[in-house]
Amino acid sequence: MSIRLDKPFQTLNDDNVAKLSGNLGVFQLADDKDKIVYIGYAGGKSLFGLRGEVDACKHMQGASQFRVEVNMSYLTRYQELLMVYISDYDRVPLHNDEQQTRQLGKLSPG
Amino acid sequence: MNLQLTQEQEMIVGMVRRFVKEEIQPREINLDPDADALPEADKASLVAKVKEMGLYGLDIPSEYGGPDLDMVTRTLIAIEMSQHRAGLYTPCYGVFGGAGLAQLYEATDEQKDKYLYPTLRGEKSGFFGLTEHSGGSDPARAIQTKAVKDGDDWIINGGKIFISGADKADYGLVFARTSPDRGRGGVTCFIVDTDTPGFHVRRIVHTLRSARYATELQFEDMRIPNNKVLGEVNKGFAIANDRLSRQRIPYSAGCIGVAIAAHELALEYSKIRETFGAPLSSRQSIQWMLVDNEIDIQHARWVTLEAADRAQRGEPFRKQAAMCKLVASEAASRVVDRSMQIHGGYGVTKDFPFERWYREMRIRRIGEGPSEVQRHIIARDILGESLR
Fold first, then answer.
1. Is B200–A43 a contact, with Cβ atoms under 8 angstroms apart?
2. In this structure, is residue A88 part of a structural domain?
3. Contact between A107 and B204 using a beta-carbon 8 Å cutoff
4. Residue A105 covered by a domain
């Protein structure tokens, strides 16, 4: 498993979201230029897994694409993706809560 | 060893049991099933309650402000604290406070000022950096990270793996080889600030624990002043070894607590779940599972309390610590497995805590020395010199 989520983005629309599985895992939303604007996860409390969580973000400002990764270790993978993003850009993605950085560790992936 | 709890122990155990049932378990209902942290406001209010109970910083020696409880009582408390979904690795979500790295109590005054006291005040955190790619169970041979003297400093190169909390820590204890040909007599413990140039957390190591991860570290020409040596040069193995034995007792207690929680759920469920017109509890196959749970728990509990009692009295306890770690981790794994089986399909869902306990308990047979290493320690102890 790559430390970065590097599979291609899909267009964020009803058809593509409906095809998503209900599995647990992590996802990223991006704008038209592939810039990540949100990192999220579908955890054990989510009713419809990744499909439900991505669907709930469909109208997030600036988000036009998405990609997902089915992963039972959704919490640690979620933290890892945030830490990698912070290592690259020194801040969390646009729609993630800046408060989260206080609970995150520091990663230097090299 | 007196098998009867004292009045004070019964009172403390009852108080912690109520705390877990009334304050911790209800809060878990709203958390992700794999969560390992409470919302900050909840945590702060619970820490205040624990302080009122006089049980904050349980494992801190009394001369440093701890509540002055003996090892047996602390073990009884640890058994109670882990009886909830996140209890195995985050007993009571940390609201009872930590004691920092035990090795720092042996540090110099200057080192205590910089690392121990801020840790006890909750201002700093540290990690324990022992295991490497070459192994963790036999540190005397496995440690390949090298520290070479350069004037008044040491230059450290190498790496560590399966290290918890290093990405969030302010400092860590790093064990490195300072004399290449001296085996266990050639290892030194260094206190390393995580902002030292050359210190890198290279990646997260994902495991069966979904909420907590380990990390992999790399050290590149890390320059550490000589006053950051903990203890003496080439005496680091004793520091590591003492910690490994001592840590096995609370580690076992956590397993027992989860086993008790799983068993209680299984007992309750077996009485209400009916199959073919009768409750599960009326079936001999289920009764025997429950009986075996009961025996496993009692066995693990007594060997763990015996190890705690010996440690408290200052007697050698390495064999007993190995035995309780072996027995408790294996017995609790069986208890969780049987309790999950009794719950059938529900047992494997995230609606119940069994699947989390099942995953996390599997790690317990490897972490802090796998079962085979515990058997090796016991064999060495009972066979003595004839083994060599």
1. no
2. yes
3. yes
4. no
What is this model's ipTM?
0.78
Residue A110: inside a domain: no
pLDDT on residue B122: 85
What's the total number of domains in chain A?
A: 1
Mark A24-55 as b/e (b = at least 16 C-beta within 10 Å). Answer: bbbbbbbeeeeebbbbbbbbbebeebbbebbe
Kindly list the catalytic residues of B: 368
Structural domains of chain B in order of their starting residue, each with its CATH number: 7-103 (1.10.540), 126-230 (2.40.110.10), 238-383 (1.20.140.10)
pLDDT of residue B103: 85
* Digit-coded pLDDT (tens) for B78-136: 999 999 999 999 999 999 998 778 888 889 999 999 999 999 888 999 999 999 998 87
Q: Does B184 touch chain A (CB under 8 A)?
A: no
CB neighbour class for A7 (10 Å; exposed up to 12, middle 13-18, buried from 19): exposed
Mean pLDDT (whole number) for B38-53: 94
- For B214, the closest chain A residue by CA position comes to A76
At residue B240, the pLDDT reads 77
- CA-nearest residue to A77 within chain B is B206
User: Which chain B residues are Cβ-neighbours of A72 within 8 angstroms?
Assistant: 210
- A88 CB-near residues (< 8 Å, 6+ apart): none
* CATH code for the domain of A16: 3.40.1440.10
Asked if the Cβ–Cβ distance from B215 to A105 is below 8 Å, we say: yes
Digit-coded pLDDT (tens) for B347-373: 999 999 999 999 999 999 999 899 999
pLDDT of residue A1: 66
The nearest CA of chain B is from the CA of A74 a distance in Å of 7
Domain-embedded: residue A34: yes
Nearest CA in chain A to B212: A76
Q: Which residues of B74-108 are buried (b: 16+ CB within 10 A; e: fewer)?
A: bbbbbbbbbbbbbbbbbbbbebbbebbbbbbeebe
Tokens of B327: 């027995």
Among B32, B201, B210, the residue with its CB nearest the CB of A108 is: B201
**A/B interface, count of CB pairs below 8 Å:** 65
List the single residue in B34, B200, B209 with the smallest CB-CB distance to A44: B34
Domain hosting residue A80, numbered range: 10-99
- CB B130, CB B166: distance < 8 Å: no
Q: Across the interface, do B200 and A108 touch by the CB < 8 Å criterion?
A: yes
Report CA-CA distances (Å) from A58 to A10, A31, A71, B220, B245: 12, 12, 21, 44, 53
- pLDDT per position as a tens digit, A12-47: 999 999 999 899 999 999 999 999 999 999 999 898
Confidence of residue B388 (pLDDT cuts 50, 70, 90): low
For residue B165, which residues of chain A lie inside 8 Å, CB to CB? Answer: 105
Q: Does B206 touch chain A (CB under 8 A)?
A: yes
What pTM was computed for the model? 0.90
